[in-house]
Amino acid sequence: MTNRQQKMKRNPVWAIMAVLAVMVLMDFIHTSSASAEDRRTRVITFLSTGVKTAATAQSSTFDVSAYNEGQIFVDITAEVGTSTLDITIETSPDNVTWYTHTAMGHADSTGQYRQAITNFGNYLRINYALAGTSFNFSVTGVFKN
């Protein structure tokens, strides 16, 4: 038996302190580790599924100030005639003046498109320009803090 073990055996206060120190350390490790449950997630439907004809329009605006990252999903399920679709993600600090955040590109057929975004300010909306006949599409966003 070592000197330290002999001291601990003679003085139970050392043993109690050692057990308490281990308990405090384990509690700290348990409470300080982040988990997926700690993050808030919000799903926003910017544009619900439906046929949209040739036009330039915007979605409703949404307050996303509580979130710091997101994914925008565009799902084009049907096309009538020959059409093109341009989706632009717009941001605003005050829900009045709008700025282009990200242009998602030019779609001319059915399919799914995704855009990751960060640093998007307080408000978001989707602006789309559809040329040609029509597309059946939806735009959804998933945001996390």
Summary keywords:
145 residues, 57% strand, Jelly Rolls, alpha+beta, 6-stranded antiparallel β-sheet, 2 domains
Q: Could you explain how this protein is built, in words?
A:
- This protein is α+β, with helices and mostly antiparallel strands and 145 residues long.
- It has 2 domains: 3-33; 40-144, Sandwich (Jelly Rolls), CATH 2.60.120.380.
- Helices cover 20% and strands 57% of the residues.
- It is elongated.
- It starts with a helix and ends with a strand.
- Residues 30-34 have low confidence and may be disordered.
Rg value: 27 Å
CATH topology of the largest domain: Jelly Rolls
Overall structural class, as computed from helix and strand content, comes to alpha+beta
Tally of helical segments: 2
Q: What level of helicity do the residues show?
A: 10-25%
How many distinct beta strands?
6
Q: According to CATH, what is the class of the largest domain?
A: Mainly Beta
Number of domains: 2
Q: Summarize model confidence as the mean pLDDT.
A: 85
What share of the residues does DSSP label as strand, in percent?
over 45%
How would you characterize the largest beta sheet?
6 strands, antiparallel
- Could you say what the CATH architecture of the largest domain is? Sandwich
Distance between the termini: 54 Å
Order of helices and strands: HHEEEEEE
What would the principal axes of the Cα set say about the shape? elongated
The low-confidence parts are 30-34
In short:
The protein is of the alpha+beta class and 145 residues long. It is 20% helix and 57% strand.
